[in-house]
Every structure is written in C-alpha cells, then in structure tokens.
Write a structure and sequence with these properties.
By secondary structure, this protein is of the alpha+beta class. The protein is built from two helices and five strands, in the order βαβββαβ.
C-alpha cells in the first residue's frame, strides 16, 4: 500500500520508496523509513495531500505520495 491510497485520518509506517531521486527529497523532509505518517487532509481535487510526519505538517503531490510504500 502507498501513502496516496490512504484517506484522511489513516496512518501508516514508511517502509521504503519506489523512486530513488524522490526518496532523497522526501527523506530530507522527514519521511524516513520507520516514521509514522498520518493523512491530515486531501484537497478537493485529490492533489495535494497534507500529512503529519516528524511533528510537522507536510504537503505532497499525489505522485510524490505514491512513491512512499507503507508497512
């Protein structure tokens, strides 16, 4: 399951990334393997997605969220 498949209120644990280049960017923003992420809200058209990770809120495009595989 990927982060983009969750609905607001659901949470998961980051397992791995499917895009090497994107993974570097995401890890710099706190999306590290083993971190818990919670979907806070999703924009009306489905993009972007606001998540809570590492104690702050982060907005990701749906494509970026789809590269995060959850446990």
């Amino acid at each position: 399951m990927t982060l983009s498949e969750l609905v607001p209120g659901q949470m998961g644990i980051v397992k791995e990334f499917t895009d090497l280049e994107m993974s570097v960017k995401l890890m710099e923003m706190g999306c590290l393997p083993g971190e818990q992420v919670t979907v806070a809200r999703i924009a009306p058209m489905g993009d972007p997605i606001a998540i809570n990770v590492s104690g702050y809120q982060l907005s990701l495009r749906k494509f970026e969220a789809s590269t995060i595989v959850l446990q």
